[in-house]
Amino acid sequence: MEEGSIHNQIRKLRFMHGEMTQQELADKVGVTRQTINAIEAAKYSPSLELAFKIAHAFDKPLEEVFTYEI
Amino acid sequence: MEEGSIHNQIRKLRFMHGEMTQQELADKVGVTRQTINAIEAAKYSPSLELAFKIAHAFDKPLEEVFTYEI
DNA sequence: ACGTGATGTAAAAAATATGTTACACACTAA
DNA sequence: TTAGTGTGTAACATATTTTTTACATCACGT
Predict the structure, then answer these.
(1) For residue A16, what is the domain's CATH number?
(2) Do B29 and A56 count as a contact with CB atoms less than 8 A apart?
(3) Angle at the Cα of A10 from the Cα atoms of A30 and A47, rounded to 5 degrees
(4) A6/B30 touch (CB, cutoff 8 Å), yes or no
C-alpha cells in the first residue's frame, strides 16, 4: 500500500482572497487560528469535515485545496 | 457557521467494483474492515488521508465518494 | 444440519486532530 | 519608541478517529 502525503493551497488561496488572515479563515470554518496554522504548515492533515469547510470557505472543490500525492 | 454532514457512496462503489467486500477495500487502503464498516455506515467520517485512499481505491475523485451537505 | 464468508456491532485502548493558553518575532502605524 | 496585528510555535488537555478483539446474524453451498 503506497504511502502518500497531503499538500494544500491554503496560503495561496488566502492570499488570493484579499489577504485573508489565518484568523479570518479560522472564524469562517469554526476552528482556532492555531489549527489553521498547523494545517497550512502541513503539521497534520485536517479531518474530512474540516477539509470540506475550508474548501467551502474559498468556494473551491476540495481537491483544489488539498491534494494527495503518492 | 452552518453544520453539515458527510455522506458517502462506498457501498454503491463496492458493488460497482465487482462486489468488492469490506475486507478487500480495507486491505487496499490499509485499515481494518471494522473501520470501513463504520465509515460506510457514517458512524464517523474518516481522516482526509483515508478518504483520499478510499477514493483512490475506486479510481474516483474524492468528491464522488464523499459529499458534504449543509 | 453444518461450515464458511460477509456483514453489523460493541467496548476498551491507541493514535491522531483540535482547543487552550502562552510566549516570541517581524512588520506597520502612530 | 510604543502599540497593534499577523504569524510561528510549544505544552498540555480534550475530542475524535482507528485498532483490536470478540461475538452475533444472515445467506449460501454442501
Answers:
(1) 1.10.260.40
(2) no
(3) 50
(4) no
